[in-house]
């Protein structure tokens, strides 16, 4: 199970990739609001865990990094949808989903998704990624 900090870094790197922004310790530090050494240290941690790899002067998500990022996004958006459908304010639902996205296991998220009728998008209108793993 990922820590909240690890999931935050992975999601930021995934988001930067989506915006076609180069991922370096400097750009990641700017995006995360941390020092360059802190960002570098965390990139090395993600590299050691197999989520990122160095390519020239930048870092890229590995297939495991992409898969894990999509899993976290799926968890967040399914939880957020459940809370919103239950009447929780959207901003609050998003904040709670951020806290819970690393706590719930895949099976629980899939049960929630089934309960909701397999929604295709979250209340913000963003797509909910399909299941990326068969470990349920």
Description of the structure:
This protein has 136 residues and is mainly α. Helix content is 59%, strand content 6%. Strand 1 and strand 2 form a beta hairpin. The relative contact order is 0.13.
What's the CATH topology name of the largest domain? Arc Repressor Mutant, subunit A
Order of strands across the widest beta sheet?
Answer: 1-2
Strand content: 5-15%
Kindly provide the name of the CATH class of the largest domain: Mainly Alpha
Low confidence ranges: none
Which structural class do the helices and strands define? mainly alpha
Total of DSSP H or I helical runs spanning 4+ residues? 6
Kindly report how far apart the N and C termini lie.
14 Å
Number of domains: 2
What does the radius of gyration come to?
15 Å
- CATH-assigned homologous superfamily of the largest domain: Winged helix-like DNA-binding domain superfamily/Winged helix DNA-binding domain
Largest sheet: 2 strands, antiparallel
In summary, what is this structure?
With about 140 residues, this protein is mainly alpha-helical. About 60% of the residues lie in helices and about 5% in strands. The protein contains six helices and two strands; from the N terminus they run H-H-H-E-E-H-H-H.
What are the salient characteristics of this protein?
6 helices, 136 residues, 59% helix, 2 strands, single chain, mainly alpha, two-stranded antiparallel ribbon, Arc Repressor Mutant, subunit A, elongated, Diphtheria Toxin Repressor, domain 2
